[in-house]
Amino acid sequence: MKQPLIESLKKGILAHNGPLTDATEKSAIRKSPVGGPAANANHCRMEAVPPQGAITLADALDRAFTLHQAGRAEEAGDLCRSILRARPEQAETRCLLGTIAFGQGRLEAARALFTATAALAPGFFEARRNLAILEQAAGRLPAACHHHRRALALRPEDGATHLALALLHGQIGDEPEAVSWLRRGVSRAPGFLPLREVYAGFCERAAVRAFGGGDLEGAARFCEQALSLLRGAPAVTQALRDLLERLVRVALLVERPALAMELLAIKDPLDFPEVPPLDIDRFPLTLLPFRAWCAAAGFRHETWRAPAQEPDETLASASPGWLRPQIDRLSALAREPVGVALAAEIEVVQGFYVKDNYESHLLAGRRFLLREVADTVVHGSRVPLVAVTPGATAGAFRLPRPLYRTVAIDRPVLFLPSTPNYWHFLVEVLPRLMVRERGAETRSLPVLLFDVRPYHREMLQLAGLPAEQVIDARELAGPDSAQVLYRLSRAAVPSAIPYPVAYRWLRERLLPHRRSGGPPTRRLYLSRRGAAPKHRIANDSEVAALLAERGFETLQPERLGVLETIELMAEAEVVVAPVGAATANQVFLPPGGRWVHLCNPDFFHPDSRWNPQMGVQIPLLGRFHHLAGGFTDDPATRPDDLLARLDVPVRIDPDALGRLLDEVLARPPTGSGTG
């Protein structure tokens, strides 16, 4: 019956909250009439005593306990009092009666019964333990500590009591003493996993605090403490597994890749139980920008400055304040070089970038990765990359060789990373074709992609790539392509293309394919009503009806072809759209076109990593307005992660949207950067 106590203690110390609730503590009081050795020897012999006729004391106690467990407290109490009339010194019965009183909210009666039990049976561990829980429920934390220490003197190796003392000192605010009890508890009760969970959790939080304060060495020391706790654990619970995942990321943030490797060594058997540890290729991974990546491998490469779309100077004054720092860096971004590595020997791990399956590439030595995936966070036991932490300079990589089939591609190809996401493919993948036209060495190369979709093929053809020049790597791998390592021996690898360069190239290459050139008078609403349940507008129909009154057409982008979408955008006066992949189509707005972006309240959160991303898109595309809706979920269950909160439906206030649209439509367009 100890588990409720353990769970309540764990929750308390993990959260560093106040005293536990009465309800939690009542359920934690020991109900089972089992005393310590001294109590059993001196006061609880199960000899035949006739408190109610012919039944034994043992039978009577069992019956009282069963009644209590069944919720029949009054009957259980009557039976306990009958036993005590015959055997007033019977400690276990008095302790059970105290438990019944506690459950009924009669704290003073319970305290008197537990105190009398402890006096009758000084070696009765449960009486001391229950007194401690009662005092804690009453808010008398020093008294609770006193009784827990008395209980611990009776059972020095009781892990739950060490954990309780750590929790209590955490509530009191004495963190060093709390940690001391955790340390002693792990030493005296090494097999009691909740102690390790709580202690390792404390170390992880302390490491994060140290990192936030700029103390990288201190953060590393806390990670090492957690490592020793995890390494000595007799088993790894789900809580410890989650801690391992977070500690790997902290170790990477403080630039301790070897420490991350040690943490991964503990996690490997959990993630790959069918793979012998020696078959797991585990190593730190250094993230490099393009030219440094080429230099590390000794690849021949070319870099050059490509023409970029420059923003209009008037945009700075017309844009919201949160965008201005990003506007200031647009000119520098436009000057970033574009390049291509030639005859490169690389490896591509399918599923490396789990979000949108954006495959990425390593050098053949598997030690250096292009920085383009620096924001990747990977989940799932079948994926080799555990974590590349945003802003980190190194990642942790695991390649369990028996799980992956190697496919060798020896022919020269132009390698492009792949994604089924419309936004990422249009803005980040397709513009890399510009390097194919750079020189004779790349001009005739076929293009290797993964999992090519119909809209990919339409985009590629509009960009001038013949269909016969597209190779789908997954067709080479065959139907069993879920776990593949592709080894390319002669690949041309383009660099990432800066947004200003990508936007100019996309407009120059795709807009001429328009079949008509109507004036920019259309008003469009890009609804997500038929899309996956992400980024949804909860009152989509209400929004569409309001927009229809102002001359807007409601479209579902997933039902449109690529060229059809381009033509609609190029004729748009105003586009209203929620967060989603369709926002990439801003690139095709006409000069002076405006975009009203519907988002959740956290999209432009100070901690959001999308601020810079949005900042380098919007100023190039004319006037931008955004309107935040209100969450429709239960705040108590809302995820902490900003990315996860993007999936919470929001309700747009029709009055606020109407006022914004009236203002946008009444004002003549200014500040175009899309000529």
In words, what does this structure look like?
This is Glycosyltransferase 61 catalytic domain-containing protein. This protein is α/β, with parallel strands linked by helices and 675 residues long. The strands form 4 sheets. Strands 2, 3, 4, 8, 9, 10, 11 and 12 form an 8-stranded mixed beta sheet that branches. Strands 14-13-15-16-17 form a 5-stranded parallel beta sheet. A 4-stranded mixed beta sheet has the order 5-1-7-6. Helix 8 (125-137) runs antiparallel to helix 9. The radius of gyration is 33 Å and the shape is elongated.
Gist?
This protein is an alpha/beta fold and 675 residues long. The protein contains 29 helices and 19 strands. Helix 6 (91-103) runs antiparallel to helix 7 (107-120).
Instruction: Output the structural class.
Output: alpha/beta
Helix content: 40-55%
Percent range for β-strand residues: 5-15%
Number of strands: 19
Q: What is the first-to-last residue Cα distance? A: 74 Å
Largest sheet report: 8 strands, mixed
Mean pLDDT: 82
Q: Report Rg.
A: 33 Å
